[in-house]
Amino acid sequence: MEKPINYNEIKSYIERSHGALKWAKKGLVENDYWVAISYSYYAAFYIAKAFLLSRQIITKTHKGTRSEFGKIYDKEKIISFVLNKWFSKAMQERIMADYEVSASWTKDEAKQSVYQAEKFVLQLQKLIKMPK
Known about the structure:
mainly alpha
């Protein structure tokens, strides 16, 4: 017997995704590009978690989330190729931003990451079916 979909948890991940986008934009404005890079990824990660939960797919790790999302992308092409590729790259960039203090990004790189994160979040959120 399938467990019912936990819409409260999905809603929480959506809200967290939007919160991460705010921090990414703040990092961009304040020239803290590592913050913009890291939180751009987290915005995508949290909306991907919400999307997977809406399909009753539970993941426990970042790698697991990316893997399960990739399986759905391969079958259904739910977002553009560019955004799917960016999500993979963003995961690696986030690791560098969080753990390699000597890593750096240009303003344009950070701006592009925030832009892609916004598109990723908007496209995936449209695919999440929530009760009215």
